[in-house]
Each structure stands twice: as C-alpha cells, then as structure tokens.
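Why show two proteins at once? Because comparison is the fastest way to build intuition. When a single record is shown, students tend to memorize it. When two are placed side by side, the eye starts asking what differs. So, the first record is below.
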Amino acid sequence: METAEESRFNEEFPEELEARAGSRVDLGANGSPRFMRLVVPGKPQQWSRASRGQNGPSFTPSNVVKQMDRLYLAWEHTMKARFVDETALMLHAGFFYERPKSHYGSGKNAGVLKAGFENKEPIGRPDIDNLVKLIGDSLSGHAFDDDSRITIGGQIKAYVPRGTESQTVAVIQPSTPTWRRLILGELDMDLTEGQV
C-alpha cells in the first residue's frame, strides 16, 4: 500500500513512478543485498551545504531536498533493503545529462549531432564528488547505516543519447578484494574484458 508521502510524490512527479521501476535489488541468503541499483529520473543534483536565510535560520536548498527524496523513494522501491552493518561497500554512480541544443545542427540538420561532438563529455559543473556525496548522504541510515561504509567508488558523468532523459543511477554492492587489489596495482587486468 502506498504511503501518504509516496502518494503526494507520485501526484507531483507521475512520470517517475514508472522510471523508479528500474530500481532493483538482489538479496542474499542473510537478507542483506548482494546488489542494489537505484534509478532516479531527472537532472542530477549535487549536494550543497545548508544556507542561512535572511532572517537567520538555515535551510537545505529545495532542489537538494527534492533529489534526496527521489533517492529515498527509489530505495523504498527495493523493499527498503539494507546492507548489514559493518559491511564495506562499493558505490558506482552514473550521472547522465541531456546534451545541450548547441551540440546539434539546425534547419535540415536539426537533431543531428555536429561533427566533433560525438565524444564530448559534460566537463562543467557540478563537480562529480558533490554529486556522489548527495547519494551517500541520502541513503545513510536507510540502505546502509553510514556512508563511511563506502570504501570503493567509481563515477561517470556522461551525455545520454537523444530522446533519453537525464537520470542518476547508483549501484551499491559489498566491496570485493578484486577491486582493492586492482587499484593497489596487485593485479594486472584488462578492464575492457570485464574481468572485475
């Protein structure tokens, strides 16, 4: 049954109900996730410090609160799965943006990517570390007890193909020694072969 919060959210963002269906979890025998994937539609938002209002009290910017709510609801869609406390975790995050109109031609070339823009990456703000921080802060106390459990991470900012909406994707799973050994240079692997 839908909570009052979910009902309010689904009325405000009806397109996100279906998109959250991309969120999923694979539970282990002990009930702790082996794998969790959260999908949050909409332009990725970065973490930012609470600001002080003109009359004194501090507040968290509304876009940050909204993105934290969206991450929470995506997590709720995984049956509120929670990693066992004291588990070291890996967080891989993708922040996907729609391309600016300036990347495309005009007139008879409208919708056609201009030459030289095929491999262009979204190198401007927001900084990727602030995007990741919002995920960790949003899921602390929910998917895991504290974001200090995240010991390995990988992130990407990229443009989505035309016709695809912006979105944030977070994949969380228990940390593996293979990644740690690879990063420390103890393993010689070809990452393109998907050995990790």
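Second record. Ask yourself what differs from the first in the token line.
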Amino acid sequence: MCRLWNNNQGGCNHFPNLSKKNRTSLFLLKALTPVKVFVLVFLLMIVSGGFYLNLINQSATTGYQINELENEMTSLQDENAKLSLQYVQLKSVDNIVSYAKKSDLVAVINMEVIDNSGMAVAMR
C-alpha cells in the first residue's frame, strides 16, 4: 500500500500525471453536454458548408473565364487566317500589276546600272 495514502485522502500520489488526466477527462465530460456538442457540430457544418460554397463559386467563375478566353482565341485564330489570306492576295503579282495600271505608273524601258567600282570615294 502507498505510504502517502492517508495524506492524499485515499489516492496515491506517485503518478501525478495519471490523476491530472483523470481530472481533465472528468472536466471535459461534465463541460460537454449533448446540447453543446450538437451546437459545435452544427457550427462546424455551417463553416465547412461556407468554405465549400466559396470553392464551388471560384471554380465556376474560373470555368466561365476559361470559356470566354477560348471563344476569344477561336475568333482571333479565324481573324488571323482571314488576314493571312488577304496578305497573300495583296502580295500577288497580278494584284501589284493591276495597282500599277490604276496608279498610272510608267514601265521602265531603259534601265541603267551604275557601277561605282571605278570611282574613287573620299572616306574619313
């Protein structure tokens, strides 16, 4: 039997941590009534539901933005294809010749090429 039996009023004080754990457990059992547990669980469900709704809202908004950007990308690709075709048409030889005729440009008959290999040029 414990030597300190009489001093601790019926409990041995060789393991103070055990008696602390028992006191804490008893306090929790007395403090947490079924109504308090229900309220805590209910509040936890409300908070987690709020986080869930926020997450769903963000993902829906992101999906909408992605859809808008994909539509814009498609329209820009179509416009790019049209502009590329127009560029090729404007650069064609037939188009350049017809533009020259419309602008009253004169064709070159005698072309002279100046060769500067025999000329001396002063350099600094």
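One difference worth noting in the second protein: The first helix runs from residue 16 to 31.
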